[in-house]
């Protein structure tokens, strides 16, 4: 088998896989937008032993239970206010543990990353065939 054809197939497969992940992330955002419950969470500090940046978000779900979500290491880059600040949170009633911050950057960052990876893989496939 020709190495160029193998690289083309690999890049196209990766591009389609990344594109499907991007569409899946966008579908999750649409589900949250259409049927999610919006509440306000409070940003709290991490424990001293945790060396990751940013804070944790604590909110109460529809049953009154306290739920803690970790916006990740890029929380401050995605619009997470400083410790003690309030942030809007959205979650599906059936899955409060899978809550997301209700900010445009935090909701769309994963799908943008997958679309960018898909574009890079498809671009590599086009350059291989040229």
Describe this structure in words.
This is Secreted protein. Keywords: Membrane, Transmembrane, Transmembrane helix. The chain crosses the membrane at residues 111-129. There is one protein chain. Helices cover 45% and strands 24% of the residues. It has helices at 3-35, 104-129; strands spanning 37-44, 56-60, 66-69, 86-92, 95-101. A five-stranded antiparallel β-sheet has the order 3-2-1-4-5, covered by helices on one side. Strand 4 and strand 5 form a beta hairpin. It is built from two helices and five strands, in the order H-E-E-E-E-E-H. With 130 residues, it is α+β, with helices and mostly antiparallel strands.
Give the topology.
Layout: H1 3-35, E1 37-44, E2 56-60, E3 66-69, E4 86-92, E5 95-101, H2 104-129
Antiparallel strand pairs: 1-2, 1-4, 2-3, 4-5
Helix pairs in contact: 1-2
Organism: Streptomyces sp. R08
Keywords: Membrane, Transmembrane, Transmembrane helix
Protein name: Secreted protein
> Which spans of ≥5 residues are poorly predicted at pLDDT below 50?
none
**Biggest sheet, spatial arrangement of strands:** 3-2-1-4-5
Portion of residues within helices: 40-55%
Structural class: alpha+beta
Number of helices: 2
Overall mean pLDDT:
87
Protein name: Secreted protein
Keywords: Membrane, Transmembrane, Transmembrane helix
Organism: Streptomyces sp. R08
Transmembrane segments: 111-129
